[in-house]
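User: Please run a holo structure prediction.
Assistant: Happy to. Please share the sequence and the ligand.
User: Here you go; the ligand is 6-O-phosphono-beta-D-tagatofuranose.
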Amino acid sequence: MIALPEGSRLDRGSGGLERLVVETPRAEAHVYLHGAQVTHFQPRTGRPVLFLSKKSGFVGGMPGKAIRGGVPISFPWFAAKAGDASAPSHGFARLVAWELVDVRRDGEERVVARLRLVANDLTRRWFPHDFACTFTVTVGGELGLELAVENAGNGPMRFEQALHTYFAVGDVRRTLLLGLESKTYVDKVAGFARKPPAAAPLGIEGETDRIYLEAPPRITIEDPVGARSIRVENAGAANTVVWNPWIDKAKAMADLGDDEWAEMICVETANVGEDALELAAGGSHTMRVTIGVGGLGPR
Ligand code: TA6
C-alpha cells in the first residue's frame, strides 16, 4: 500500500474498479488503475474537460475492456494491429491493470501520480518485447500527461502510441479546431487517402477520422456552445489524430450513446504509422500532452 498525500485517495469507481481520486485547489481528476485511464479532469471554476460515455463499460481483468472516454492509452499499436485481426484495437495497455507507483504533491497546487506497466506473459503473447511504460499524471490548473516507454530488452523494439483523448464539447457541430490548417493528413474516412492542408480551421461536419502527418505544438478547440476553448499542447509526438464517429457509427457503438457523438471530439497525441517509433535496446522515449482551458478568443 503506497502512501497517499493529502488531496488524493484510492476508491472503487464504476464496475468496482480501483480508482485514484485527486482533488487540488485548482482541479479534480480520476485515474483508473485499469488502463491507467484518466476519466475525469475538471478545473474548480469550470465543467469537465474530458468526455466519458454514459454507456461505457468498466470491466477489469487481464484483459478487460476499454473504458469509452477520458484518455485511453493506445500502445503498442494504434487502431487495428497489422496482420492480426484477433488482436484488440489500440493495443493492450488500456485493457490491463497498471501498478500505481507513487503519488506526491508538487507544491500547493499540483498532485503527481505515476503508474507503470511492464511486459508480462500476457503482453508477450501479442508483443514479444521487454518494455516498461511509465505514465505520469499531473493534476493542477492544467492536466499534464506523460507516457515514457523504455526498451528493456536486448534488441530493437518498434511500437505505435497515442494518448487518445476524448474532449467534452457543447456541440461538436459548432466546434472549431485551430492549429492544423497547414498540415497534410491521411483521411481514414476516404480510404486512407492523403489530403493536402485545408488552410482553414477544422470544423466537424460528418464522420471524421484523420491522422495528421505533423503534430503542431498547440491545437485549440474552440467550443462556442460550451463558451470555452481547450488548449492541447504536444511534445514528443509526430502525429495528431482527430476523430468523431458522427451519427451512424455512434449508433453502432454499444458503449456510446446514440446522441453522445455531438458532445465529444477526440484530439489525440500520437506516434503512429510511418511515424511509429523504434527504440534500440535500453533506449527510451517520452511523449507529453498538456491540457488547459481558456475563454474564447476574438475571431
Ligand atoms: O483514433 C481514431 C480511431 O482509430 C477510430 O478509427 C476509431 O476506431 C476510434 O479510434 C475508436 O477506436 P476504439 O477501438 O476505441 O473503438
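The two ends are 51 Å apart (CA to CA).
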